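pasting for ref. prot 1 ->
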Amino acid sequence: MAGSGTAHLRPAEQVVLRVADLVVAFPAGRGREVRAVSGVSFDVARGETLGIVGESGCGKSSAARALMQLPPPRAGSVRLDGVELTALRGEELRRTRRRLQMVFQDPISSLNPRRRIRDIVAEGTRVWGLGDSRVDEMLEAVGLDPKTAAVRRPHEFSGGQCQRVSIARALVPEPEVLICDEPVSALDVSVQAQILGLLEDLKHRYRLTLVFIAHDLAVVKNVSDRILVMYLGKVCELAPSTVLVDHPAHPYTRALLSAIPRSGLDLPPSDHLITGEPPSPVTPPTGCRFRTRCPKAAPRCESEEPAMRAIDDDHWVACHFPEQGEE
């Protein structure tokens, strides 16, 4: 699933965030490296929510941090409203980051335990010289009372409340794009629903564009306009949410959907069963990276890496033997 190329990217004037051939690599000792992200390309239209889903270790969080240039990617392009972020340095990058903010997975550890909530939320206003006038507005927007919440510290709040604080902090600089990296995975199911509803409300109120990352396709499908499926650093499939759920084309996508209780998909076991653990990202399989766990693998899958190709309007898949028109 390498070499996905950029054929599935939409014209630049239609999108606010455009990522092309992104590569993120980390040293793995003994002269080896892990390519956490290998040639990933996607774009996000203004006002859209793009969901990115895959198992732990698939590279989705590494891709999210690379968008923020934390750290910068090994290779590839990240354009925000046409501005190439990978070419920016110092003050210019710092100013541009105001337009691209992030909400992290663990809401409690992402907040400084020694600081009061007002100071945590106001951090962005001081960095960008905006003044503190938006702090109360953002606390109210995320459902917290500024009068009582502002003087408390993170340990006095629940996980869900801490995530609300994190969201308020991210919104203070008035970003265009909000990257949500597993924002509900550490929360109870009932609290997850509240945070997801809050993000949807804030998206419309502040005209945000969202990149929503999770390992749970059941969560992603309910909040996303389009979904990108990743496996071992590569893109498997990209489609509008309803299309991907109703007509999954890649065997890995079908496997993820089959794991959702009462998903509504009548998939024969032989079509969606995968076994074993993902291969090591240090030495990924040749050809299709999913072939070692795929029930449809053939000799071609070992020798030839599938490229992203369109199987319908705005539905792209990297598979030699995709399902088409089936549920």
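and prot 2 ->
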Amino acid sequence: MNSAAQALYEEMQVSLGKLVPDFELYYKAEIAIEINRLKKERNAVVLGHNYMEPVLFHTIPDFRGDSLDLSRKAATTDKDIIIFCGVKFMAETAKILSPHKTVLMPAERAGCSLAESITAADVRALKRKYPGVPVVTYVNTYADVKAESDICCTSGNAVAVVESLNCDTVIFLPDQYLAANVAQQTGKHIIFPSIGGATPDNTLLDVQMIGWHGRCEVHDKFTVEDIRSIRAQFPDVVVVTHPECSPEVVAASDYSGSTNAMIKFVQESKAPHYLVLTECSMGDNIAAANPSKDLLRLCMVHCPHMNMITMENVRDSLLYTKTVIDVPEEIRVRAFSAVDRMIKIG
């Protein structure tokens, strides 16, 4: 091991030694040094989503955070190549905002159960069924779905986006739980219709939000019983959830917010114990960044798609320029309009 890798290994031992086996730190330190060298040679920027495994997350990204924030930061750089350590819809968003840059996703296939729950054809069918109703689409969707939308939203600004439309009725896609949580916060009655069949004349008389049956396979696993069991063992625990969890789980928690908001909440709070109900690598990353905080290690739910991103395939992505993410320009322009409308709201 060269001196640079040795120094990085010792640094990782301090921050990650309680979370990651020592042999893994030793092995991956050399890969991280190689990736950082390749970044400079290829004028590349590496983006690390909050759900990346700890060694990757804490060593090679130039920017760390949630998906839209990362894409916006990458767009401001002078780098020729964007390596997105995340799933496909995230890399597509980076391409939407940086059309003249080469965007690479390290894994050949890193999808998302939520993004794959809806297609552009589904959105067009909903618009035919509910003509004139504006479509709000969560950023956790593919580019062609964004292109069929009026405006996008994040989990953090979804309520503000819906309220900005000043409409009696909105279509909110595709996350069933996020939609239900937003409906509760905005006082709207929500339905989850099928897209087949005729629309009765009075369908929208008492409906203010039209949702979709899409779910994140990670957040769908958390239950109210999980929280009750944890509180029985740790009565003073503070439970932090993502709004992609069910409304019942969100209601049973102490705080719910986007990935960045959850991180900030833990950093700024002074509770005796925390339980973060989201992808478990993110819990590890929060623990590593907050060694004085007691984060309960009771979460065992990992995203199989995020776990496809490894240090090895990040290195290979830089070496061999793979996997290239392209978005057809006609789709990109329309998707950019939906994203840009959201950004202007804040």
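The two ends are 46 Å apart (CA to CA).
The domain at 3-110+306-320 is CATH 3.40.50.10800 (Rossmann fold).
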